Description:
It contains ten helices and no strands. The chain has helices at residues 2-15, 23-26, 28-43, 52-82, 88-113, 121-145, 159-168, 195-203, 219-233, 236-239. α3 (28-43) runs antiparallel to α4, α3 (28-43) packs antiparallel against α6 (121-145) and α4 (52-82) packs antiparallel against α5.
Amino acid sequence: MIESGINAFYGLLNGFGFSDPVHAALVHMPIGLVMGAVLFGWLALFPGRERFFLSARDCAALALLFWFPSVLFGFTDWQHFYSGVWMKPIGVKLILAGILLLLLAAALFLAFRRPGASGKAVPVLYTLCLVTVVLLGWFGARLVYDGKAGGQGAAGDYSLGEKLFAVHCKGCHPGGGNVMRPDRPLVGSDALKSPETFVALIRRPPAPMPPFAPAAISDGDAKELYRYVTNVLAHPGAQGGKP
């Protein structure tokens, strides 16, 4: 039921021409607001700048408010674009999100209970929040950009495709098979007739496979995936690949 609701939601967004992850758009709100809380929080310690304490507190309160939809749509994006496949960056982000929630709650508790009289404790908590959101952004980037910096791999180098397959495909297609439809493995399917056919498949796949928008897998990365599947998974002995 949850999965069908998530698919319906993203189908509605696709109908409006929005095929990108929602979390990526929302997550900038708590990040920017935490940065504002840090800036105003430290400025409030200077004589005559005490009014910035309230500005910092308001930024932190809004950051806490946006924490909830950011985490919610992070979960739905993970389910839709990654099929809920468990990955280390996902686990780390969940832990960091929990830490951020606790830090924001603690900072706001002090800020509302003792306005302007908590010394450096509140700005320090805001700063710890900033460190946490930076780490959240870094691990989020690992999900999206890991392995992309090198561009297309050279002939005989399938490391980029292997990384992409591990992140996006291995959960449902281990070794080039098909967990949900064992009778329709990836290796040997008509989708591998050409790179263009493969790209078309991941953009508009049959259910229950989720679509992968260019924001999740670029055309160049899709072709690296194709090279890995057709040259390594399809011929593991010849290429020395590991399914």
